[in-house]
């Protein structure tokens, strides 16, 4: 229908044409998760927990042979992100205070901004070095 109508005679520069073609061919940008909205120190905590490259005993012992073992001080399991956020009895009170209902570790690490901030608060309250 547009082709049958009279076309305006507006000159388009080479650069404008190039930009239009590129914008058509570019894939749509994926939405960034809320991790990118956080302050830098909060981002660092979440990134280290997500990747497992942190100062928890499991990583330090398995990667660098630092410490006597990878076991958590509770003695029930290796000190990993999952263990600290979900199971460690030492941090039950902190966990219940921040997440009264059971929350999946995926939500704690990849959820909306409010959940990420809860995770950061939890880590800060436990005084663990991440």
Explain this structure to me?
The chain is built from 7 helices and no strands. With 130 residues, it is mainly α. It has helices at 14-25, 40-51, 57-64, 81-87, 92-98, 105-110, 113-126. The protein is elongated, with a radius of gyration of 24 Å. The model has no long low-confidence stretch (mean pLDDT 93). It comes from Candidula unifasciata. This is Reverse transcriptase.
The total of beta strands comes to 0
Structural class: mainly alpha
State the major sheet. Answer: none
Mean pLDDT: 93
Q: Uncertain regions: pLDDT < 50 for 5+ in a row?
A: none
Helix content: 40-55%
Shape: elongated
Order of helices and strands: HHHHHHH
Query: What fraction of the residues are assigned to beta strands by DSSP?
Result: under 5%
Rg, Cα atoms, Å: 24 Å
Tally the helices: what do you get? 7
N- to C-terminal distance: 61 Å
Organism: Candidula unifasciata
Protein name: Reverse transcriptase
List key phrases describing it.
single chain; 130 residues; mainly alpha; 7 helices; 0% strand; elongated; Reverse transcriptase
Quick overview of this protein structure:
This is Reverse transcriptase. This protein is an all-alpha fold.
Topology:
Elements: H1 14-25, H2 40-51, H3 57-64, H4 81-87, H5 92-98, H6 105-110, H7 113-126
């Amino acid at each position: 229908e547009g082709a049958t109508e009279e076309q305006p005679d507006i000159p388009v520069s080479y650069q404008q044409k190039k930009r239009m073609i590129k914008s058509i061919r570019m894939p749509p940008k994926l939405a960034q998760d809320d991790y990118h909205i956080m302050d830098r120190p909060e981002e660092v905590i979440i990134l280290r927990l997500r990747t497992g490259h942190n100062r928890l005993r499991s990583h330090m012992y398995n990667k660098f042979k630092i410490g006597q073992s990878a076991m958590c001080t509770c003695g029930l399991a290796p000190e990993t992100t999952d263990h600290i956020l979900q199971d460690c009895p030492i941090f039950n009170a902190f966990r219940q205070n921040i997440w009264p209902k059971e929350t999946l570790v995926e939500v704690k690490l990849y959820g909306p901004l409010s959940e990420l901030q809860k995770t950061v608060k939890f880590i800060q309250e436990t005084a663990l070095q991440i």
